[in-house]
Amino acid sequence: MSRYIATRAIRGANALVTEAELMLDKAIKEKGPETPVSFPNTAYYLPLIYGMTGQAIEQLGQLQSVLEHARQLLHPMPSGRHWTPYLGETLDSGMATLLAAETIECVRFIYNLQPEPMPGFQLAGGTAFTSPDNGKDGGMDGHLNGPIDDIQLRSWGIQLVDGRMPGFAAIVGAAKSNEVAVKIVRELQRRNILCFLSGNVNGRSIIHQLNEEGVELGYDTYTVPFGTDTISAIYALGFATRSALTFGGLKAGQARDILLYNRERVFAFVLALGEVDDLKYAAAAGAINFGFPVIADTVIPEILPTGVTRYEHVVSMPFNEIEGKDDLERAERLVQKCIEVRGVKVKVADVPVPVPYGSAFEGEVVRKADMRIEFGGKKSRCFEYLYMAPLDDVTDGKVEVVGPGFDEVASQGSMDMGIVVKVAGRQMQDDFEPVLERQIHYFINGASGIQHIGQRDIAWIRISNGAADKGFNLEHFGKILHARFHADFGAIVDKVQVTIYTEPEKLQEWLTEARSAYDFRNKRLADLTDDKVEEFYSCTLCQSFAPNHVCVVSPERLGLCGAYNWLDCKASFNINPTGPNQPIKLGKSIDTLKGYWEGTNDYAKIGSHGVVQEVAMYSIMENPMTACGCFECIVMLIPEANGVMVVSREDTSMTPAGMTFSTLAGIAGGGLQTPGVMGVGKFYLVSPKFISSDGGFKRVVWMSSVLKETMSDELSAVAEREGDPDLIGKIADDRNVTSVDELLAWMEEHNHPALVMDPIF
Ligand code: SF4
Ligand code: ZN
Fold it and tell me: If you placed Cys at 168, which of 161, 194, 496, 606 could pair as Cys (CB 3.0 to 4.6 Å)?
């Protein structure tokens, strides 16, 4: 244990706890101890304090006891020659630092200093779901992100568990140059590692550097700018704490378990760029508590023995001493070192395109002003079609462009395009065609500067000026698809050939062919019902985070994350026969109405390690399926209304149950059966098997308006199916009803069918 580090960490911790005490005192005097405090859109209060101490802080005055606790953790400043430092002192100081830092951030929220204002700054956004509070729309322009909300935590959940997102990097400080800053972040993004950005060196932050270089920052690009001081780095550890509470089923106050969970399962590290001051040492000591090592690009003493962290605790890699022909190569080596030290598991497909490539770019938006050309959208047509062919008919790696490229098209113009992918493989089946075709969206989106929306014949692709300038052309779509299908689906696909059509006649021919295939597949899907198959599939992917949770996936009930339906699971099983998706032979039916089979019950016991004994596929009231943390919606009984409400993950408003999604999620998750509460994938809502044994879709009395809007076609079809074409209009939503009383009045007024249905329990 380096005595030097201990001294500086302890000094930094003392200073920060004192600062927090002063700030809190002042705030209590000015605003009053009962002033409500919270971080936006989280059910975990001030998450680090909540996790570490079990205290649910809701009022300013409650923070006093937190700081008392922090003060107790502080050790006197070491002095004298005989002082022998031990790691415990540094770790305690680190914990005290974290408690103080979260307190300070909380006080800053009261004074509107968080999220930190930054004039002209714009967070990357642009997904279909926007909410004024979650930073995804234009309403958030002009300041940094501040803490990550629960919505985002959960939507990243599935990527964290399936390994697409291997971990996170908390980057603190500023890089040697803007160029190096961009390179470091690009290297991390390329590996799909989340980048949390904070801190500064002499007033300059990596956030400034990236912003100046035009790097899009925000949830959509896996780069979250917390704030330009070191204290805001606390949000990274709040995120880590919430991962343990959300996915690990741990409870507030189980500090030791939460720290261990992170050490074992959350692949994170701290990258300190530039000079390390006392406060940074203290914060680093905080991170070491979580098992997150600290890598610095300056000369600092190292702590190499492995104990608390899996590998080294503190590693110094002075930037100018890194071997490399230039700074860019040094930046690359630095990132490489971080990954080695933390043991982050990374898979990257080598994709031969002239732009950076990785999942972190999937969410990038190409705005009209930055656009070179688009295919599809309002002014042109774009389609994509994947089909299987005999092995001999496919030339692997062949990419052909039939028709002109976009050189002749004016800037910001549009043209028609069809992407036709022909695959062959000994393990390939017809049923996998749509599964693979859907991947085109993710694969193409992975290229920086390319945006892909939609699928089939409503695909819509944009190429940015930046990407076009770097030489991105139509052929590259084929190169991407060839590389990614081999990398991700090599077990079922042996050969991949891609043809890009822009020539009008050929394009039309293929469009007609593609459309008849889409129709055929639609019919096949409609015919694919639970009673027509002999096996369902398990999904245990989330067990890496929620150890006892199993999704049972049937043709009419997809996984609760929305990412895996029955065909996906079947394909996944073929790709990886010992993987997370195993066939569950249904065997003897026990109760067709509620959805019990011998096979599913047996599997539920094994898969949940005995926690769950039976699972009813079609009921929320009796043995409902468990949930991990990444559900798209929560369905919950409203007893007074004789029905259920459906709350979307994107909905931040108050529900009639008196709780927001974030709070409800705490009840629904954790891998336990809770009758009356269920996490579901949103497409299960429109399935004929949706809580069919409890009365089906007519039980829905309230639903988030975002669902009504984004699924309006599907929901109208359900209303028809249920024989009540006006049904959706009879369902209340957040725009008109936020309490049970209002709900009951609404139902009376609109004559909701649940009023006259049998009692739900
Ligand atoms: Fe997790 Fe279920 Fe989705 Fe599988 S289907 S990834 S277990 S939520
Ligand atoms: Zn999950």
Answer: 194
